């Protein structure tokens, strides 16, 4: 689950998980976030 953070005025998000997450899962998640951040900055 990915949802907006509410802890400050900064643009943030939180990631929640229940279950078995592997290193490969996390690598794919970080790659997907980097891809979205790249397209938003263009």
How would you describe this protein?
The chain is α+β, with helices and mostly antiparallel strands. The protein has one domain (2-41). The chain is built from 1 helix and 2 strands. It has one helix at residues 23-41; strands at 2-4, 13-15. Strands 1-2 form a two-stranded antiparallel ribbon. A hairpin with an 8-residue loop joins strand 1 and strand 2. The longest helix is centred in the C-terminal third of the chain and has 19 residues, at 23-41. The chain is flat and about 30 Å long. The model has no long low-confidence stretch (mean pLDDT 78).
Secondary-structure class: alpha+beta
Morphology: flat
User: How many strands appear in the DSSP assignment?
Assistant: 2
What is the mean predicted local confidence, pLDDT? 78
Seen as an oligomer or otherwise, the chain set is: single chain
What are the salient characteristics of this protein?
2 strands; alpha+beta; two-stranded antiparallel sheet; 14% strand; 42 residues
Task: Write a short abstract of this structure.
The chain is of the alpha+beta class. The protein has one helix at residues 23-41; strands at residues 2-4, 13-15.
């Amino acid at each position: 689950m990915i949802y907006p953070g509410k802890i400050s005025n900064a643009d943030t998000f939180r990631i929640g998980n229940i279950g078995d997450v592997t290193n490969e899962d996390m690598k794919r998640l970080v790659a997907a976030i980097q891809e979205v951040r790249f397209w938003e900055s263009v």
